[in-house]
Amino acid sequence: MSFFTKFTYLLNPQRDSSKVALSICLMILWALSFTTAMSFVKIVHGEIHSLMILFLRCFFGFLFFSPFVVKGGISNLRTKRPFLHGIRVILTCTGMFCTYYAYRHLPLATASAIGFTSPLFTTIFSFLFFKEHISYKKWMVIFAGYLGVLIILRPFSLHLDNAMYVALLANAVASGAIIVAKRLSSTESTVTILFYTNIATFLLSSFAVLWVWQTPDIREILILACVGLAGILSQFFYIKALQLGKPSFLAPFEYTRLLFAIVVGTLFFQESLDQWSLMGAFVIIFATFFLSRMEMHPEK
């Protein structure tokens, strides 16, 4: 059995309980890979424009992703839903640019915490577009997780700058991209969705980057290659998780990203970790654990 065959078999469990468990694991892997990508973004030289980061991230991401495209063959890239792919490309491109801008101008933990408005958008969009039934208990868990974010943010004592508004915009459009990906995942493979998203985002950013082009040095190229690898992995993990679970269930697990952000920010960026951050992290852990129990053992 080849590596690709084993990998595909592992990511396609048959039992419902296994699907729930795997979707949770994929979300944790997404949180880790996303935090890794944003950490590398923060150490890119300040003079490098965010459009440059977007362009090179898409370029290197596609290079790392291309073996899966070759393995699947061109026939697997055929789609009957080009319009939905186009919408996802626009949302993803906008969301990525805003995200890179926000993470470069905000502390890692702060940017991650603001990013947790995304589950609220995702859950509301799931309710509006998928007509998902969301119990009051799930709503309570989602808002409990968001309460943990607010504890960390302390909004009444925090000066709101433009980067925070950009971060909120990034979350709104990213949630829209997630909903579109969920629609596509019913008929399209993960490879197909990633292919069209990345190749189109690369082409769009290649035109925009002409006005801000700066030739990066070897160090910057290596850093952005790491951003590309971690970025494509994060997209893969999230889309695969969407094929196994509902967006409203998966959304609160985005809160685990904050735990990685706090650790990385403290160890590598000398960002302080106070009692409020610890308290908020505890609330987030409790909320995600409780939600996983609800999904694995639904009430009869």
TrEMBL record:
Keywords: Membrane, Transmembrane, Transmembrane helix. Belongs to the drug/metabolite transporter (DMT) superfamily. 10 TMS drug/metabolite exporter (DME) (TC 2.A.7.3) family. One of its GO terms (cellular component) is membrane. This is DMT family transporter. Its main location: membrane. It is found in: Membrane. Residues 23-153, 164-292 form the EamA domain. The chain crosses the membrane at residues 20-44, 50-70, 82-103, 109-130, 139-157, 193-213, 219-238, 275-292. It is a multi-pass membrane protein.
